[in-house]
Design a protein that fits this description.
By secondary structure, the protein is mainly alpha-helical. It is built from two helices and no strands. The protein is rod-shaped.
């Protein structure tokens, strides 16, 4: 592989501080988005768990007293 040298016109490039700031902002935004998604997932799991508990309670209440004794 042959090494090639690229000439970059520095005057057209963004200052390093600006690039770093943009990356930090985007990192914070992606972290916030990930946290929101995590909270949504936790709420969904909690709702699913409650739904399962409710449905199991309904099953128990549908049983006759004799069936409940058997369990």
């Amino acid at each position: 592989m042959e090494a090639t040298e690229e000439k970059i016109d520095i005057s057209k490039e963004k200052p390093l501080e600006e690039i770093i700031t943009e990356r930090m902002i985007s990192k914070v935004e992606s972290d916030e988005e990930a946290k929101k998604n995590e909270l949504k997932d936790e709420k969904i799991q909690e709702l699913e768990r409650k739904d399962q508990e409710d449905s199991s309670k309904k099953e128990v209440s549908k049983r006759t007293p004799k069936q409940q004794e058997d369990v």
